[in-house]
Amino acid sequence: MIAGNIFKWIGSLFTDLLFLPFQWLRLNVAKGDGGWWSSNAINWLFLVVLLVLFAYWMKESAKFLKEGTEDRA
């Protein structure tokens, strides 16, 4: 009973609160001039963040490999 209420609450949280900015983008911004670029700006932002984090991860991996402290188990 409690688990069902938790999943309903999580679903309500996402649909009623967290997806509101995306709904606003879809209904208002995407129909104007430059709609594709403005509606996909969040995707470009996520891509940039992922690339920066990947570059940092590879830099740290190379540092540990050079020091010989990388766990190769």
Helix/strand layout:
Blueprint: H1 2-18, H2 20-29, H3 35-39, H4 41-67
What would your notes on this structure say?
By secondary structure, this protein is mainly α. Helix content is 81%, strand content 0%. The longest helix has 27 residues. The protein is flat, with a radius of gyration of 21 Å. The termini are far apart. The mean pLDDT is 86.
- By DSSP (H or I, 4+ residues per run), the number of helices equals 4
- What integer value in Å does the Rg equal? 21 Å
Rounded average pLDDT: 86
What is the terminal separation in angstroms? 43 Å
Based on helices, strands and strand pairing, what is the structural class?
A: mainly alpha
Uncertain segments are none
The biggest sheet, with number of strands, parallel, antiparallel or mixed sense and barrel status, is:
none
Note the beta-strand portion: under 5%
Give the ordered list of helices and strands. Answer: HHHH
Q: How many beta-strand elements?
A: 0
C-alpha geometry: flat
What labels describe this entry?
single chain, 73 residues, mainly alpha, 4 helices, 81% helix, flat
